[in-house]
Write a structure and sequence with these properties.
This protein is of the alpha/beta class. It folds into two domains: 4-81 and 158-267, P-loop containing nucleotide triphosphate hydrolases (Rossmann fold, 3-Layer(aba) Sandwich); 92-157, no CATH class. 34% of the residues lie in helices and 28% in strands. The strands form three sheets. Strands 6-7-8-3-9-10 form a six-stranded mixed sheet, with helices on both faces. A four-stranded antiparallel sheet has the order 2-1-4-5, covered by helices on one side.
């Protein structure tokens, strides 16, 4: 049985007087690819913020690798997990190589050269197929290219545990596949991936486990084949869905159904 990475008990969290997560109990284990889905405002991003210690819970505990997450220093925590989130505001005009080097900050020591930085950046940039971009400014990159660069920076920092908030939103199909295939490949070699998605099909195709949140509580939790169904999704999103299987991979595929067209069809 895989070792637990996170033990989450009676977790509640939110912002000021607004409770977003309400008494969450979860165990997240090594080498899982966990997708968190649910409607807007369900608490997906908030859960990631709490377990990465970006915000503190209002009640309950988060045990990370057998230790309360509040007892880690920021540098120690950064050496044990990577976090990929949208970057707000204007980004300084860094080169891609410089941006990637920031992934090494938890391991750098004053007056001590980082003799491994060059080789790590080279290896990861080649794996992520961004080595041709190293001299470019990050301001010159497309959204898809920049997302690949952010994934590479996270892998340079830590490959054991990666938390991601909407890693493929607003990307074209090519870059969606590139990003997700990289994450899947690292998961297959032992990395623990925990990611929030709006797209149920991406979650179903790539993850080993799907956790659905609704109104701050866990609505369902299980493997894609066990939990992706028309009834469960209709209840989660208060919409109508059609579920089938991908003829190539056998994974569930979800089709949202227009309520208007559905009613028209039923009256014909």
């Amino acid at each position: 049985m895989s070792k637990p990475v996170f033990l989450i008990d009676s977790l509640s969290a939110g912002y000021r007087d607004n409770t977003v997560l309400d008494s969450i109990h979860l165990t997240l284990s090594e080498s899982e690819f966990v997708s968190i889905i649910g409607p807007n405002g369900a608490g997906k991003s908030t859960l990631l913020k709490v377990i990465s210690r970006a915000i503190a819970p209002s009640s309950g505990t988060v045990i990370f690798n057998d230790k309360n997450i509040s007892n880690y220093s920021k540098r120690e925590l950064a050496s044990k997990m990577s976090v990929v989130v949208p970057i707000p505001g204007d980004i300084p005009d860094f080169s891609v190589k410089m941006f990637l080097s920031f992934g090494r900050f938890p391991f750098k020591r004053l007056f001590t050269p980082d003799n491994t930085e060059e080789s790590i950046i080279k290896d990861i940039s080649e794996l992520c197929a961004i080595d041709r971009l190293l001299a470019r400014s990050i301001k010159e990159l497309s959204a898809g290219e920049f997302q690949l660069v952010k994934i590479a920076r996270a892998l340079i920092q830590n490959k054991d545990l990666i938390l991601l908030d909407e890693p493929v939103s607003n990307l074209d199909y090519k870059h969606v596949t590139q990003v997700m295939d990289i994450l899947l490949e690292f998961n297959r070699t032992g990395s623990t991936i925990i990611a929030a998605f709006h797209d149920v099909n991406i979650a179903a195709e790539y993850s080993s486990r799907i956790i659905a949140l609704k109104k701050g509580s866990i609505y369902f939790d299980g493997t894609p084949n066990d939990v992706i169904s028309e009834d469960k999704l209709s209840g989660l999103y208060d919409s109508k869905f059609l579920c089938r299987n991908n003829p190539v991979t056998g994974r569930p595929v979800v089709y949202p159904v227009s309520i208007t067209n559905y009613k028209l069809q039923c009256t014909m």
